[in-house]
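**Reference record**
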Amino acid sequence: MTTETRRGFIGKGTAALLAGSLGGMGVRTASAQGLPDDPTPEELEDLRSKWSFWLDPPKGYDFKRESRLVRRYEYSDCNAELLLQRNGPEEWHWQRVLKVFPKKIDGALPAVGIPFYYVEAMLGHELDDESKALDHFTEICQARQLARRGYMAITCDLSQQNYIRYDEPRDRTYWPRFRDMSLKLAEDWPMWNAHAHRVFVTRLMLDLLEEDPRVDQSRIGITGHSLGGQTCFYAGCLDPRVKAIMASDFAFRFDQSCWDILHYFGGKLAAVRADGLENYTLLTLSGAKPFCLLSGFYDDDTSFTDMVKAKGYRSRPADLMFINHALKHRPPDWALEAGYNFLDRKLNGKWGNKPWA
């Protein structure tokens, strides 16, 4: 399906659920009419058991939880701290974690986790030189963008950067890392998968917010783009510390992208679906957390059709928000602002001054 087709397409059954539409900008919330009944305790326990089987670390994946501060940075519009955090049982299993926060801190901050390939991408430039911008990521440097809005943002290198120890150094953009990491994980822990490992290390990263007195523990959200969107969605649904989720263009439906390839579910997706599991069931399991999805290329209006299958939202349908900018795989500024405003409402009780804010 082309981008132009996506722009005007409304999936079957969606029209009845669009009474909460917020105008012609592709921003929608659900309508209570047509949303499913709330889940029963038995349904929630069944979902918990099934998702736990596919996502939880296997027995034996044990290690001492520890971290240490490496360096502090001062930039023109934000400050940052780089930490190392152990994330696995091998001696080299350490992930870099970057906290980015406003220049001035006045009281406990809301915080947002941002999983992505490596920490510099979400900052938008090299750690040691603010003038060296990472051009490919300057539109989506969410850690820096959120720090400007008064949040502490926390991001980490994902699994492909540190699960394997190479004989020779590899650049952070050495993309065969995904293949190598996935194959080694399958060899070490055959019942696990690379996607579940990313979710695990993201939740581990969130542990570092609990230890930080600058963070308001009642106002923690999560966001991410593309692979980071997939990871943040799963971590946000599963982690009780996360109060709101905003994800960008990650393929909400399993048939919209490559969920079953090696460095995602790794051939296990058919079995996952045979258990009756789809991504909207994670929203049900989350306790119907506020969720905003930005759609551009991998997602389309049928993503919203699936979102509204989640149970638990009938009494607060506006907690399901869908923004379809239909502009390929990079959200425009207005769509990102709308997503950030969603987090502002859910974490800070703040409303914007535009119809879609």
The chain has one domain: 3-348.
